[in-house]
Design brief:
Blueprint (H helix, E strand, L loop, with lengths): L6 H11 L2 H4 L4 H4 L7 H9 L6 E5 L6 H14 L7 E5 L10 H12 L7 E6 L7 H11 L3 E7 L2 H11 L4 E5 L5 H7 L6 E3 L19 E3 L2 H14 L3 H5 L1 H4 L2 H22 L4 H13 L4 E3 H8 L3 H13 L3 E7 L11 E6 L3 H6 L10 H13 L6 E6 L2 E8 L5 E6 L16 H9 L6 E4 L4 E5 L2 E7 H32 L2
Parallel strand pairs: 1-4, 1-5, 2-3, 3-4, 9-11, 13-14, 14-16
Antiparallel strand pairs: 6-7, 8-10, 9-10, 11-12, 12-13, 15-16
Helix pairs in contact: 4-5, 8-16, 13-14, 15-16, 18-20
């Protein structure tokens, strides 16, 4: 049974969703929230006017996409864009059901006395609730040359696949991952725990990922480690990070509002999955074993699900930003022609906490959780990583250089014992791998020991896992921001040339 609403009722709803038409500011609830660092990467795409493309904001549920949109709207207003030239619509609002995007644009223009000849900004939130959204959006981009369209959605798999299929040349995809450890500390106003000498406004400086530890001074390593464990348990989502009430029952919030909606609604609707329990069981198995080496055979034997089905489910879960598959190389650094073995990491360690229980510093699962947290920082980069595994050895993180040869390696440990000479023999894998490939100063993470030591003839850099995690996440975002500044400086210099 369909309810017919009048045009006036729909316009009244629009006015409610766009309070800046009256007050020139976004709602106070969003106004006081701290911006994510990704804002500086997202905003330039929104104001780009030379290339006619819609911006498609993708990411898992509850990472702050809607807040990012509202912060963008506020900055547009602060930079003298007339408030009534900006429209925000949440497509999941029931009142908009059955109304096409073009008709909604017409209502917006009528409500604000605008026309399509002036520059306008239109934000469609939760766009996945509109069937065939990508076809409609492409048509709008082609038809309305003075309107900048920005859309977002939580069904990340649907957005990613459909934007690739139908939006070639019309869409610019922007992925918003879960919080980095650095962002987590920033949101909690704990920036002073680590003091860094290189910031996001140093466009002349390239920040190397692997060799800038001296640029970070930790004021209280014990406190940093405490918050690192809190981050692994609760830190991927802004709302969870800032709410003690939510942290008291993370399973209820994260599992019900994030995991279940993806596994039981988004993915089944998108891919026509009939056995939702099968998908849920597979994800639970992966979450419990995050960071462990797996194979399709081993998963199939443990779950009773066919290998072909598992392969499809893994693809779906990765497209939905819930997991990341890391491929294996051998001790010579060569990739395998058939990827029989691989590791799967949760994109956010707090997903495991929600399904099972929070970990402590001495928990049996702490090693894999630390590894998962560190790998989750790397998803904020364009760097492709591998792990090395051979008959009697393994190295946790390996990077292949331009010639597809290993050029740096990291062994992740949540222990200080490997810094002691009597335990150097237990680092034989990373030593052997580094010697073979002439890798200078491989990294081994610790609990709280930091320094360079000679281990059986090679120098090894020991660094606390929490600091390493912080550094990778911070540098990942700041390098992107610096790149934008450098590109802008280059453009400005060209424009100023006679």
């Amino acid at each position: 049974m369909r309810i017919t609403l009048s045009k006036d009722q729909i316009i009244d709803r629009m006015k409610f969703e766009n309070p800046w038409w009256r007050h020139h500011n976004i709602d106070e609830h969003y106004y006081v929230m701290k911006r994510r660092e990704y804002f500086e990467l997202f905003y330039p795409l929104v104001i780009e006017s030379k290339i006619k493309r819609a911006v498609v904001l993708m990411g898992p549920r509850r990472v702050g996409k809607t807040v990012l949109l509202f912060h963008t709207i506020q900055k547009l207003i602060d930079h003298q864009v007339p408030p009534k030239c900006i429209c925000y619509l949440s497509i999941e609002t029931p009142i908009y059901n059955g109304i096409g995007l073009e008709q909604l644009i017409g209502y917006f223009m009528e409500a604000t006395n605008n026309d399509s000849n002036k520059p306008l900004y239109i934000f469609f939130d939760e766009i996945q609730y509109l069937k065939n959204w990508e076809i409609h959006l492409k048509s709008l981009v082609d038809s309305y040359h003075n309107i900048k369209f920005v859309v977002s959605g939580s069904a990340a798999a649907a957005l990613k696949l459909k934007s690739i299929e139908s939006g070639a040349g019309r869409f610019t995809d922007f992925a918003l991952p879960p919080l980095t450890f650095h962002e987590y500390l920033s949101l909690k106003k704990l920036e002073d725990l680590v003091i860094s000498t290189v910031g996001p406004r140093d466009p002349d400086k390239n920040i190397p990922f692997q060799r800038n530890f001296l640029q970070h001074k930790v004021n209280d390593l014990q406190l940093l480690n405490k918050h690192f464990i809190d981050y692994m348990n609760f830190g991927g989502y802004p709302e969870v990070s800032l709410s003690a009430e939510v942290q008291s029952n993370p399973g209820r919030y994260i599992r019900n509002d994030i995991i279940d909606k993806v596994l039981m609604r988004d993915l089944p609707l998108l891919y026509g999955i009939d056995d939702i329990q099968e998908l849920n069981s597979l994800f639970t198995y992966i979450a419990f074993n995050t960071g462990a080496e797996m194979s399709l055979d081993s998963i199939s034997q443990s779950s009773g699900v066919s290998k072909n089905t598992i392969k499809k489910y893994i693809t779906y879960l990765e497209a939905a930003f819930l997991i990341k598959v890391i491929q294996r190389v051998d001790n010579s650094g060569k990739k395998f022609k058939r990827a029989n073995f691989f590791k799967i990491y949760l994109t956010n360690p707090s997903l495991r906490c929600a399904l099972f229980s929070p970990v402590t510093a001495n928990d049996i699962a702490i090693g894999n959780m630390v590894e998962t947290a560190i790998y989750s920082q790397w998803q904020h980069t364009e760097v492709s990583l591998y792990y090395a595994r051979w008959d009697k050895g393994e190295v946790d993180i390996v990077h292949l250089g331009p010639l597809q040869k290993p050029d740096w390696a990291v062994e992740i440990k949540w222990s200080n014992k490997y810094t002691e000479p009597k335990h150097f023999s237990e680092l034989k894998n990373v030593k052997s791998f580094s010697t073979t490939h002439n890798i200078s100063k491989p990294i081994v993470t610790t609990i709280d020991v930091h320094g360079v030591k000679e281990v059986d003839g090679i120098e090894v850099e020991f660094i606390p896992s929490s600091l390493y995690c912080y550094m990778i996440g911070r540098n990942a975002v700041y390098n992107k921001i610096n790149r934008i500044y450098r590109e802008q400086e280059y453009t400005d210099s060209k424009l100023s040339e006679p």
